[in-house]
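chain below, 241 aa
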Amino acid sequence: MRLPVLVTYTPLVAPFLNLAALTGEELELLLGVEAAQRLRPDLSRARMEQKAFRGAEIPDELRFEPLSGSSEDGRAWGATSDHTRKIRSMREAYAALGFAEHGAFYAPGLQGARHQLALTGEGDTAARIVWSETLSEHSETPSTQLLTLLRDRASGFAAVLTSTVLTLPAPSLSEEVALRHLPGLDVQAAHAAHRSEVQRDGRGVRLATYTDWERAWRFLRSLNMSAWARRGVLLDVKGEK
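prediction:
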């Protein structure tokens, strides 16, 4: 079974976020509570005047840059020894579940942790272990995400995403994505929850190779970009603050 036709997002607007179109919760997740509060008066004024308010730039495309040391050569990934142990444990857990590794990558267009290990398994699941190689006040512990694309949309969903990342995504994902947000859950439990959701929503599209893995995550991004465009979250540069 081939992947579903990608939802093509044609960038009719400049790739910037329109902060005035975001909810209060989305702003706090994206900017932090204090920064969101500082901007509140300006955003309220922009909304009253029906104007956009320019936020962060969004990359034109989602890229995955291959990294060395991705599998059998013993590279110790992680910004701390604790993170290294956790990444190793997660890899072992996925191996025990029968998942295949396809290498480590850096995704410059992602928010938060941009290092990731690509895996596929269950015949229909693209998984990734995500982490950061540098520490900051916003650094998250290594986490995992599992993505399955659905063969039809009878359930109303085009994809199922299970994420153990501590914070919710902002802006919110497309309404066509069934999100299971399970912060801090281990790989085995997250995998079990993901399988349960997939069985509830439909049958998954076959995903087995790295090419399948890459296209699946790009498909998810396309769904989100289309949803954000409908909401007015993507800013036309002519209307920027």
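Strands lie at 16-18, 54-57, 65-67, 100-106, 115-121, 125-131, 143-149, 159-163, 177-181. The first strand starts at residue 16 and ends at 18.
thats it, cya
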